[in-house]
């Protein structure tokens, strides 16, 4: 018999969440900013880095690429290049975390070569990188796919005009890759259909501080004038808007009264608007928001690139709408197959059907605790939210997915009244 030890959350549902909870730095901003340290001479300091598995893995990839990665006592990271000869990001690490593809652009720009394992598909659907490669090729990089690796060379990248829109809109990490590569390219690069996400803006802020010449950040047209070198930087990671949204939903579904601290309200406009529309009482402060539950009614949700409703909150909003009165329709425009959580929510008594890239959510009066399995990070978050709202006990298995994007979530939710325990999960075969 083989025993595999994993962890699970055991959640006693039905506890009303009340009190204040603080949002951490954004994972999806931290990862590209860490990769950008390949570009700078000397050691940079990155503040408000969240303590997450994905950040840990990115640190290990960067160590493989010749960077020193030091965790400082105040929670920031100090990173700088010590060896510029390394250009290989190995499959074993890249496969753990697809965000690591954003080392490709900086490696090409600073070291003229890169060998980065091709990230595979994943449960939220296909994760192609054709747009990343198209952008870098347009700048003069020679790129081949060999033995599961992207093998790329460029003696000096050249600025050019690049259209980065794809079948599902702009690409966040594709924009990050081209943006980083362009900072050290010869001449001017124009990225059309650029991603506008706050995480891209945070990266651009780092690069500009380092001496890059960038305009149009936050719009669909970013213009980068190449410079010869970039200097080290002291920079701050923005608060995680997806964690903020998850906590707001958790407050709402438990009919709670929760103040979510350390947020950027301007990054959450679409989410706040939607929550108010379904009946959640949201009061915005300068860098916080108070969420009070109430009677929730059905809605139509379409995930879109920023400033639309983020795909990374779709599963959590589905949990919320599963107990809202009436029939909701949720359409995924970013990752049309990101629906693995439906079957698990239905095991808890939800009534949700998948119809192509949409989910039809018939609201039920309540969810019931059950044993459920997390398939990915945000699916895990949606099941935790559902477990908090449900009657009875929910066990969410494969909680390592959740740890990729939420730091000690069970402890922080316990602090505002949730009953959650992390336990070993021994599976017997
Ligand atoms: C980032 O992934 C995030 N990851 C994802 O968060 C997030 O869901 C996604 O952006 C969308 O907001 C990180 O920042 C580390 P995309 P990314 O390229 O950049 C298609 C989470 O849970 N596409 O913007 O990889 C793609 O298939 C994670 O925290 C191409 O067709 O996503 C998708 O349909 C999951 N060709 C759409 O574009 C390409 O070359 C948007 O993907 C690239 C993408």
Commentary on this structure:
This protein has 429 residues and is α/β, with parallel strands linked by helices. It is 30% helix and 27% strand. It has helices at residues 27-36, 53-64, 91-94, 104-111, 130-138, 172-183, 198-209, 241-253, 269-278, 314-322, 341-347, 377-389, 400-403, 409-414; strands at residues 3-12, 18-22, 44-47, 67-71, 77-81, 88-89, 113-117, 142-146, 149-153, 161-163, 188-192, 213-215, 221-225, 234-236, 257-261, 281-284, 288-292, 300-303, 327-332, 351-355, 358-362, 371-373, 393-397, 419-428. The protein has a four-stranded mixed sheet. A four-stranded mixed sheet has the order 2-15-17-16, covered by helices on one side. Helix 10 (314-322) links the parallel strand 18 and strand 19 (327-332). Helix 1 runs parallel beside helix 2. The longest helix has 13 residues, at 241-253. The chain is globular and about 60 Å long. The structure holds ligand EPZ. Ligand EPZ binds next to helix 1, helix 5, helix 6 and helix 12.
Compact overview of the structure:
The protein contains 14 helices and 24 strands. By secondary structure, it is α/β, with parallel strands linked by helices. Ligand EPZ binds at residues 28, 31, 99, 124, 126-132, 166-168, 171-174, 199, 310-312, 334-335, 377-378, 405.
What is the radius of gyration computed over CA atoms, rounded to a whole number of angstroms? 21 Å
**Can you tell me the residue ranges where pLDDT is under 50 for at least 5 consecutive residues?**
none
List the strand order in the largest sheet. 22-23-1-24
Any idea of the CATH topology of the largest domain? Answer: UDP-n-acetylglucosamine1-carboxyvinyl-transferase, Chain
What percent of residues are in strands? 25-35%
- CATH 2nd-level architecture of the largest domain: Alpha-beta prism
Q: How many separate helices?
A: 14
CATH superfamily of the largest domain: Enolpyruvate transferase domain
Query: Tell me, what's the shape?
Result: globular
Total count of domains: 2
User: Which structural class do you get from the secondary structure elements?
Assistant: alpha/beta
Instruction: Give helix % range.
Output: 25-40%
Q: What would the average pLDDT be, to the nearest integer?
A: 95
